[in-house]
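Minutes, project check-in
Item: structure for the 128-residue chain
Input as provided by the requester:
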Amino acid sequence: MRGKRNISIGLAVHPWRLGLSVKVEKLILVTAKHMPQHKYFVSIAEDLAKELGVELETRYEDYAFLADYGEKDEYDMPWTPQLLAKLSDGRIVPILTRLPFSTDTLQFQLGKAKEQALAKLREYGVEV
């Protein structure tokens, strides 16, 4: 054997996989005003945008955008509201797609939702 060949198979290596810093460029809230969770997602998105020091873009009922970047159900259909982040490496990723709630009181847990969004950003390599 003459040696190893360096074969490129076209896989993208994201900066965060190399230990490089990734930043949030902006948050994108895709929502519908008639949805019961709308006001809660707006509140969380505004708080996170302020905390991270980034722009908040709001899109209304943009299901085509969610079909490309958001979460979908078992029938491949996206839902609203969903909060996504545009990262400095070009990715658009979902960070909050469902609100956690208390099984005792059935109330949404907004503090926990915000923590879940921040944890998701950390999974994508963002330092928060």
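Outcome recorded: Helices lie at 38-52, 63-69, 110-123.
No further action items on this chain.
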